[in-house]
Model the fold of this input.
Amino acid sequence: PTNFVLDVSNKMKKIILDERVSENFVWMNDDIYLLSKISQAEIKRPKALEDMDDVLSSGRQNKRGRYRVRMWDTYDELKRHNLPVINCCTHLPFCYNKSRLINIFNRYDFSKDNFLISLLYHNYNFKKTRQ
Done:
């Protein structure tokens, strides 16, 4: 796809509308292979890579490439809402909740907004669990 944000949002919308998919579902990329047992608790737990405020203040931010540009645009959007921004955009399976995703889709129009859904989802929904 030429716009991966729109591609992901379209796929997630189909999942949300599909009654065969449970309220909580696992999202993972097509190049992920599970090589050992993994618990539901592990899949549900957000995997924090870094506090993006720390990355920004240290001057380590990488804004090269479409994905990184969208990541920092999403960071700016979350900061406009006074949210701390933890980068949870890992290449690991994660459990999403349909109702929580619907809240994100009600806030944003991904045909216009090039924000990363995973970064929005994690920071809107898990801000109370951060240390």
